Amino acid sequence: MNIAIVGTGYVGLVTGTCFAEMGVNVTCIDVDDKKIQALREGVIPIYEPNLDSLVKRNVAAGRLHFSTQLEAVLDNVEVVFSAVGTPPDEDGGADLKYVLQVAKTIGQNIKHYTVVVTKSTVPVGTARKVKDVIENELRLRGESIPFDIASNPEFLKEGNAIADFMRPDRVVIGVESERAKKVLTRLYKPMLLNNFRVLFMDIPSAEMTKYAANAMLATRISFMNEIANLCDLVGADVSMVRRGIGSDNRIGSKFLYAGIGYGGSCFPKDVKALIHTAEENGYDMRVLKAVENVNMSQKELLFRKLEKYFSGTLKGRTIALWGLAFKPETDDMREAPSLVLIDLLLKAGCQVAVYDPVAMDECRRRIGVAVRYAKDIYDASQGADAVMHVTEWKNYRMPDWNRIAATMKQNAVVLDGRNVFDAEELRAAGINYIGIGC
User: Which architecture characterizes domain 211-297 according to CATH?
Assistant: First the structure.
């Protein structure tokens, strides 16, 4: 089976590579010629565990190809996935210009029946707009070529995307015809053979499912952060509370960890977009607005705790940040709490040292030389008044606290934004400890 994936960002590249691994002949399309050439040479533009080896293997096997010309491959494919970016507009809505440009190119060039699948996260009603654009282009050509639209939102977690694709909780597919359903059933046959859940539904419901899922997870995070903040005030331990409520099978334990807020390319953007969609339809998403407000405030929490610890005197202090990416196993710093903290610390007159196993180059790209880039967590902590634990990378879950204490300043403190470290172990080494809700 031959398919095309338009967009070689996170979603497009992972999707195309994984389909190729399943035996599909895939051409990934992007307008960025330099990126396409780099991909042909095995240079991967994003960090995702095992993706580079998977790309190289499928390129070598002749199943994965890269091109800048969508129109050149349309004659040979049955399905086109649109996985281009949908950045937020100033009003919080999703910018669909790239999605609609892909639709226009398809309408201008298809010559046989094609299933056009939106993979990008898009508001409800986008598939209808895609269909209208393709139909309009066909009218301008004087052609009556059959096609179908579909929605197949992705649910990939950065850092675990390949496993998520190959062994999914569910695959959601919105279709409006039996013909499109048969084509996509054939494409997803390996999933069906392995008894993974492939859920067919109408297109608006599929579009809404992605937003509703991310909004629910974001809500759980903000709810637990609110509980953690209250625990700080009343003397409760949020980790005990999490165990207590997570043992209720109606609630479950996932996404109940208190911390310093969510970031990344999905949750912040999707919460905003869902709020915007509601406003366009005359509805006020009061819960999600609160979720967003809590999250924005939570990203500043470690800074506020640092201010309180040093009684407001931060100018001239040296602060180390352990972690820059919004989550481990990725170099993605979009909407990352680290960016908020760095900005606040610099404005307060602090010297900032940072370390992250994979996101250092991304940080340099974003903020340049405003901070010191350390070679590891020990280098970052040398001479520091405080350490902020921002991203819970596994390779520094068990640091040598005695070594760190020997190089930090007196009255030093670790602010654990992920509640990973043992407070008693730090205090035994002579370092003060502050967690979230405990």
Answer: 3-Layer(aba) Sandwich (3.40)
